[in-house]
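Q&A log
Question type: sequence-to-structure
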Amino acid sequence: MLVYHYSPDVVSENRFVKVGKKKLRLLVVRLKKEAQAAARGEAKPPCVLWIHGGGYMIGMPEMVFFSRAIDLVERCGAVVVSPDYSLSPFAPYPQALKECHAALKYVKKHADELGIDKSRIIVGGESAGGGLCAALCMLAKDKHSVNIAFQLPLYPMIDCFDTESSRDNHAKVWNTQLNHLGWWMYLRRLKGRKVPCYASPAQRRNYEGLPPCYTFIGDLEPFYAETLTFVENLQKAGVDAKVDVYQDFYHAYDMVQADKPEAQRAADVFVAEFQRMCEQYTAEN
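Response status: OK
Response body:
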């Protein structure tokens, strides 16, 4: 069952950034000052741009409150910023990525106002949000716009072509049929043209210089094979990248079965990896 986190120590607010004609809403979630001081002392908190999932078709920033992002706020004292990016039924690729990039640049520009550590700007997300996370890290690197400390693309939707695990998958929550629909909706404007890595990150050929990465994946879900390949490609390029594989996890198991001990263990490991990477990696901006 989905577990909505509510803590009296957590506060949220909406901010807005102009992207073309759109006023993009950013949900900012953080600890109250007293709780923040108890969690991190005088040290400025890291900031995680967390991108929600939903197959590029559905979803909202408030999914932060039942995803792994809320753990980063409550247990690590991080500031989470989640963009209300355009969904593919209304605006297919590249609009969502363009808006996430604008949100990332907003975080960098307003780091002092947000009270965050500018050297620890992190990008994460689950499912399609994990795909946008991976794509955004590539785009930011190639455009030299924001230096990202590390990335957290959880069970990411990154390959628009069938893989060994997505080709004939009938698992819960997300399967082959939904995957085909999600990619068609997102990429329909390309109309047979070559798919760039910013649309489907698995198409990337040069992984050198991308941010360090941590992710986890279930062995039953469609994105299993593409996630392992993504991590392997990062490792081959000399990037610190790690994936934990959980047996019998279907897609978004950590959220859908959040009350299960194995899901809670995955959440604990995720928090530990986040803390490790925060100690190990910075990126000057």
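Response note: The chain has a mean pLDDT of 96.
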